[in-house]
Amino acid sequence: MPPTPTGLLCMLMRGGTSKGAYFLAEDLPGDPHERDQLLLRVMGAPDPRQIDGIGGAHPLTSKVAVISRSTEPNTDIDYLFLQVGVETATVSDKQNCGNILAGVGPFAVERGLVAAGDPNTSVRIRMLNSGSLATARFPTPGGIVDYNGDAAISGVPGTAAPVLLDFANTEGAACGRLLPTGNVRDMIDGIAVTCIDNGMPVVLAEARDLGVTGYETPADLAADTQLQDRIQSLRLRAGKLMGLGDVTDAPVPKTTLVSPPRNGGTISTRTFIPLRPHASIGVLGAVTVATAVLLEGAVGHDLAHLPAPGTAMAIEHPSGRLDVDIDLDVTTTPPRVIRSSLVRTARKLFDGTVFPRPL
Ligand code: NQM
């Protein structure tokens, strides 16, 4: 009889508009190559359907969080985000994920890494992918995580308990600088772009410059292979200018096509991760786009309907809007991001043992 594969303790959670497998670092191999090979087998990659694993057959549902107690002062836990490929046998630590982040604080309480407060708990999280810090605050009445509540976020049916996320040090998270090319605007393939990184490396371009309106559905954009070829060409050149090297197989930079807001928000977006259209927009992606449109001269600045200072910016996306609060000091050159914050929700979906596909 073949041996029974060894199982791993795993919690499946929805974090914001993403879904992923959450692990304690101590339950995974310490060697990154061994860990990644195991995670491919857990998620069922590579396979467009991820039929033999627990991945959801889309980049937004093929995600992993690895969590441990932090050894750093003023930080409670360390969070490493890993993007597992769907069609490709890739596991990348080259980007953060602010959506999966929403589940990290509750997971840390559930696993006993952090003592719960009453009625709320604040967890200080070091995002290992970039060294940036986030604080998550969520309800824990009686010292137990309460996932139920009345916060609604676009892209998720119903309501749930709010998870308030506050970010610091996100500027240049992957590229080292907020404006990694040194310019607020560059020309690539004859198209004006802004290359920026406030937690997520993003290339912004006006939708109309790529021959679309920017109000198409993700399905329509996914069917436009010519558009994807142009986006790939833009991001390959932008990746080099942003100091990210050859980004052919990397999940970053993302590309966001912007157009004037249509639903009372600040700016309308269609984002590609990196070539598949996003069903909404990533958290740090939205923070980065919001930062860009605040900068005079940046792509999107003239299209945006900027709210009064101190008011949240509504980033419109295909399934609604994501509201982001940003404090930016524009008196310095380049401008300094002081902090950003937003609300997400998260939910524990399943807790148990996952059995990786055998070797
Ligand atoms: O930008 C998708 C998502 C993300 C990442 C992506 C994210 C972020 O929607 O912080 O949340 O950009 O690949 O989960």
Chain-wise SSE layout:
Elements: E1 8-15, E2 18-24, H1 32-43, E3 63-69, E4 77-84, E5 91-92, H2 98-110, E6 120-127, E7 132-139, E8 162-168, E9 186-188, E10 191-197, E11 201-206, H3 218-223, H4 225-241, E12 254-259, E13 267-272, H5 283-294, E14 313-317, E15 320-329, E16 336-354
Parallel strand pairs: 2-3, 4-6, 11-12, 13-14
Antiparallel strand pairs: 1-2, 1-16, 3-4, 4-5, 6-7, 7-8, 8-16, 9-10, 10-11, 12-13, 14-15, 15-16
The chain binds (1E)-4-oxobut-1-ene-1,2,4-tricarboxylic acid.
Q: How would you portray this structure in words?
A:
This protein is of the alpha+beta class. It folds into two domains: 8-170 and 345-354, Diaminopimelate Epimerase, Chain A, domain 1, CATH 3.10.310; 186-332, Roll (Diaminopimelate Epimerase, Chain A, domain 1). It has five helices and 16 strands. The chain has helices spanning 32-43, 98-110, 218-223, 225-241, 283-294, and strands at residues 8-15, 18-24, 63-69, 77-84, 91-92, 120-127, 132-139, 162-168, 186-188, 191-197, 201-206, 254-259, 267-272, 313-317, 320-329, 336-354. An eight-stranded mixed β-barrel has the order 1-2-3-4-6-7-8-16. A hairpin with a 6-residue loop joins strand 15 (320-329) and strand 16. The longest helix is centred in the middle third of the chain and has 17 residues, at 225-241. The protein starts with 7 loop residues before the first strand and ends in a 5-residue tail after the last strand. The mean pLDDT is 96. The structure holds (1E)-4-oxobut-1-ene-1,2,4-tricarboxylic acid. The site of (1E)-4-oxobut-1-ene-1,2,4-tricarboxylic acid has 15 residues, from helix 2 and helix 5. (1E)-4-oxobut-1-ene-1,2,4-tricarboxylic acid binds at residues 17-18, 59-60, 96-99, 200, 254, 273, 282-285.
